[in-house]
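in:
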C-alpha cells in the first residue's frame, strides 16, 4: 500500500487552518466588541493605554479558546489593533494619530496579539491531539481486554469491528472465513445514511481476492484502486481468518491511523488463532479422553468379565460331565452360581448400553408423572436375590408425584441398592426414603456399611472408577453404575450427591422435579 509520510502533517495543517464557521465569526466579533466597550470604559476612568492593550490581548486569548484553528486568532489580532487605533486613539473614528509613539505601540501590539493567538491556538491543538491519543490508547486497551474475553471467531470479529468503528469513526465491513470460504459481508455502521453500496457484489469480490491472495487491496492501493473500501486480510502467517474493509471515499488514512488499524487487525488475528488452537486442543482432549475410555472399557471387558464367564462355563461343564454323581444340594448351588453370574453380566451389559446411548444422545426419554412410593416398590422387585441377606426398609411420604422416565429412575434405584448390597456385609440395613424437600422430590439410599474413604469421594461418579474396595463375591465392578446414575439424574435436571451416613455408611441422595397435582372435585 502506498502511503506518504507527509500525509499526517498535511492533514494536521489543513485541520488547523480549516475555514471558520459562522459561529466562530460571530464569537470573534462579539469578543472584540466587548473588549472595545471595556476599553472605552477604561478611558473614562483614566486608565492607561497599557491596561487597554491588555484587554485586547485577553480578547485574542479568548478567541483562540472558543474558536477552532488559527484563522480567527490571527484575524482577531489584526482586528484588535484596528479597533484600538480607530476608537481609542486621538483623533477617534480615524486611523490617524497625533502621538509620536503610537505606531510603535500598534506594531508591538500586533506582534504580541499574533504571537499570543498563535500560541494559544497551538496549545489548544496539542490538547486536542493529546486527548485524541489518550482516546486511541484507551480504545486499544479495551480492544485487547475484550478480545481476551471473546469466544469464537464471529464474536472476536464483532468486537474488532465495533472498536474500529469507535476508533476511526468510519463504517466497517467485515468478512469471516467459514469452512474454507469467505462468508457474506457484515456492515458495522455508526450512521443512518445509505451504506448498502459497501456490500455490493463488486466489493465482495475484492474481499474474496484479498482472502485468496493474502494481500491488501482496494482504495489507495495498486490492486482495485477504484473500490470504495480499503480491504485488509486478518491473517497470522499463512492462515487467513477474515477480511476487514475501511471505506475511503473522501480521504485516505494517515500513517498514524494506518499503524493503529494494523495493530488492531493483528490483535484480532492473534485472538482468532488462539481461539482456533484452543478449539483444536479441546477436540484433542476429547479424543484423548474417548480413547482412554475405550481403552478402559476394553481392559474392563477383557479382565473383569472373564471371571463370571469362566465361572458359568466351568459350572456348566461340571453339570454336563458329572450330573449323575452330584447330589441335589450341590446341583442347586451350581444352578444358583450360574444364575447369579448371569444376572451380574446382564446388569453390566444393561448399564453399558444405557450409558453409551445417553452419552451419544440416542437414549430417548419418556417423561411421565409417577408416585414415588410406587416407583420404589416396583424397583425392589428387580433387586438381585442376594437382598434376602439384607434388611431393606422403605419410608416414603404419600402422594409425592414426580416427573421422570420411570424405567431409567428404576435403573438408578436398582444400581444404588445393588451397590449398597455389594459393598456392605450381609445382615446390614438399607434404608430407602422418599420425601418432598425444597420444592423437589428427593430419594435417598442409606446403608450402615464401612463407608467410602474421603480420597475416593471426588471420583466416585467417574466412569470406570472402582477404587480399591474389594467385593465379597470376587465380581469386580466396572465402575459404570454410579456414573450412569449421575448422568440419568442430570438429564432429569436433578442432582445426585454422596454424603456420610451417621454413624457410618453411605447416603446417596438424588432429586427429581415435582409434578403439579390437579384435583377434580
Amino acid at each position: 500500500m502506498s502511503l506518504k509520510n507527509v500525509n499526517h502533517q498535511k492533514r494536521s495543517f489543513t485541520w488547523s487552518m480549516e475555514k471558520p464557521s459562522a459561529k466562530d465569526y460571530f464569537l470573534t466579533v462579539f469578543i472584540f466588541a466587548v473588549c472595545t466597550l471595556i476599553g472605552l470604559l477604561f478611558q473614562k476612568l483614566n486608565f492607561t493605554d497599557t491596561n487597554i492593550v491588555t484587554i485586547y490581548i485577553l480578547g485574542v486569548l479568548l478567541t483562540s479558546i472558543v474558536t477552532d484553528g488559527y484563522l480567527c486568532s490571527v484575524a482577531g489580532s489584526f482586528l484588535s489593533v484596528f479597533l484600538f487605533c480607530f476608537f481609542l486613539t486621538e483623533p477617534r473614528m480615524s486611523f490617524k494619530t497625533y502621538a509620536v509613539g503610537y505606531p510603535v505601540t500598534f506594531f508591538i501590539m500586533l506582534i504580541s496579539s499574533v504571537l499570543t493567538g498563535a500560541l494559544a491556538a497551538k496549545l489548544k491543538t496539542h490538547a486536542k491531539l493529546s486527548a485524541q491519543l489518550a482516546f486511541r490508547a484507551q480504545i486499544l486497551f479495551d480492544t485487547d481486554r475484550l478480545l481476551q474475553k471473546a469466544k469464537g471467531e464471529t464474536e472476536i470479529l464483532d468486537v474488532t469491528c465495533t472498536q474500529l468503528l469507535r476508533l476511526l469513526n468510519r463504517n466497517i465491513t467485515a468478512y469471516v472465513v467459514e469452512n474454507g470460504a469467505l462468508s457474506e459481508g457484515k456492515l458495522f455502521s455508526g450512521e443512518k445514511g445509505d451504506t448498502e453500496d459497501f456490500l455490493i457484489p463488486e466489493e465482495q469480490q475484492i474481499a474474496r481476492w484479498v482472502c485468496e491472495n493474502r494481500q491488501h487491496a482496494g482504495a489507495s492501493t495498486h490492486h482495485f484502486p477504484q473500490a470504495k473500501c480499503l480491504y485488509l486480510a486478518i491473517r497470522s502467517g499463512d492462515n487467513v481468518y477474515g477480511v476487514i474493509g475501511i471505506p475511503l471515499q473522501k480521504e485516505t488514512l494517515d500513517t498514524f491511523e494506518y499503524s493503529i488499524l494494523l495493530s488492531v487487525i493483528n490483535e484480532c488475528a492473534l485472538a482468532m488463532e488462539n481461539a482456533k488452537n484452543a478449539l483444536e486442543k479441546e477436540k484433542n482432549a476429547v479424543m484423548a479422553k474417548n480413547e482412554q475410555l475405550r481403552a478402559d472399557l476394553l481392559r474392563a471387558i477383557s479382565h473383569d468379565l472373564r471371571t463370571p464367564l469362566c465361572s458359568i462355563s466351568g459350572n456348566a461343564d461340571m453339570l454336563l460331565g458329572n450330573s449323575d454323581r452330584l447330589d441335589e444340594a450341590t446341583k442347586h448351588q451350581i444352578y444358583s452360581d450360574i444364575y447369579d453370574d448371569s444376572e451380574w453380566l446382564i446388569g453390566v451389559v444393561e448399564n453399558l448400553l444405557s450409558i453409551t446411548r445417553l452419552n451419544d444422545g440416542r437414549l430417548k426419554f419418556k417423561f411421565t408423572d409417577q408416585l414415588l412410593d410406587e416407583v420404589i416398590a416396583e424397583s425392589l422387585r428387580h433387586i438381585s436375590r442376594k437382598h434376602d441377606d439384607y434388611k431393606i426398609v422403605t419410608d416414603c411420604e404419600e402422594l409425592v408425584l414426580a416427573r421422570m422416565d420411570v424405567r431409567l429412575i428404576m435403573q438408578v434405584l436398582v444400581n444404588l441398592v445393588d451397590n449398597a448390597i455389594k459393598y456392605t456385609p450381609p445382615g446390614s440395613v438399607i434404608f430407602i426414603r422418599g420425601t418432598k424437600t425444597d420444592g423437589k422430590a428427593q430419594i435417598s439410599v442409606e446403608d450402615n456399611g464401612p463407608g467410602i474413604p474421603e480420597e475416593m469421594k471426588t471420583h466416585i461418579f467417574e466412569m470406570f472408577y472402582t477404587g480399591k474396595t474389594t467385593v465379597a463375591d470376587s465380581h469386580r465392578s466396572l465402575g459404570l453404575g454410579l456414573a450412569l446414575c449421575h448422568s440419568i439424574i442430570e438429564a432429569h435436571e436433578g442432582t445426585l450427591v454422596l454424603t456420610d451416613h451417621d454413624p457410618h455408611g453411605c447416603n446417596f441422595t438424588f432429586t427429581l422435579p415435582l409434578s403439579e397435582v390437579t384435583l377434580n372435585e
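note: Residues 185 and 204 are 7 Å apart (CA to CA).
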